[in-house]
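Request:
Um, any thoughts?
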Amino acid sequence: MELLSLALYALIALRRDSGFAAEAALKYFVLGALASGLLLYGISMVYGATGSLEFAGVLASSFNEEANEWLLKLGLVFIVVAVAFKLGAVPFHMWMPDVYHGAPTSVTALVGTAPKIAAVVFAFRILVTGLGTVHHDWSLMFALLAAASLLVGNLAAIMQTNIKRMLAYSTVSHTGFILLAFMAGAVGFAAGLYYAITYALMAAAGFGVLMVLSDGDNECENISDLAGLNQHRVWLAF
């Protein structure tokens, strides 16, 4: 996860002459580092509560009620917040619109696809596999995050005039659906992963259309740039 993020920090700032790209890279780096710190702090609390970093050991300790319950739940909160940052769930989505807008379209296509699938798999491994015994606690947090993401993501998306910012808020909204799938445990994970992969492919296709319509340094970013597309680029409009 962190190796992938390190590569994205550099790619987002690829356009050295763009102030937007530098700002987007800095925001992504600062908030990404914060999320990583929260994740490590949460993992350290889980280790302190269970005495193990192995998924099987954590699961066995919590199942046999040998773990420090309050320390385990506090660590769980930090882990869920870090996962929410990585997925871009409300209210931890503040980096997404600026990063999507500031990065080159080709890089935005990468930011909006591969890291999301990786974050979904990571969330399953650490929450469902390792912390399945406290499913009730983190599923309640996921329910609140999902409801907020669906509401804010959809309302904010319809108010945007920039296509990339609109797609960023669309990603926030779709993150809400993915979080809802996690509430069903291991069974829902398959549906959530399928949903994430499908959305990643559709997002890549959408950004691909923007790249085709872009002309050199003049990127197709605003909804007004698509005016008359059905008349001269029928297949792309379709």
About this structure: The chain is about 75% helix and 0% strand. Residues 106 and 211 are 7 Å apart (CA to CA). The chain has a mean pLDDT of 83. The chain has one domain: 2-237.
